[in-house]
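Sample intake sheet
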Amino acid sequence: MQEAGVQNVAVKTSSFTGIENGVRVKTWSRHSNGFVRNVLFQHVVMNNLEKPIIIDQNYCPSNGNCPEQVQASSYKDHPAEASCVNVGGKASGLQQPTGCLQV
């Protein structure tokens, strides 16, 4: 499938409070030649969010015509966990839970 890539995206000096999702990167779960690179989240403050950062490499809107995938359950009342595959970069400052990138 021919999909355009996304690159050089910056989210800077932002605040998210009391909402379900914060910043989000989604890529299709079906095969594609699209890409996401050079994404920067800088000086972003998040308070009381269900899912502060979502990087979804298996996005499938309306579960239509996508490969079989395991659906994630709600994170409410469970400690947050970081789970990463094919991720590169660096992180700094407080990370809670502990992230996938080296500080």
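Comment: The first strand starts at residue 6 and ends at 17. Residues 6-63 form one domain.
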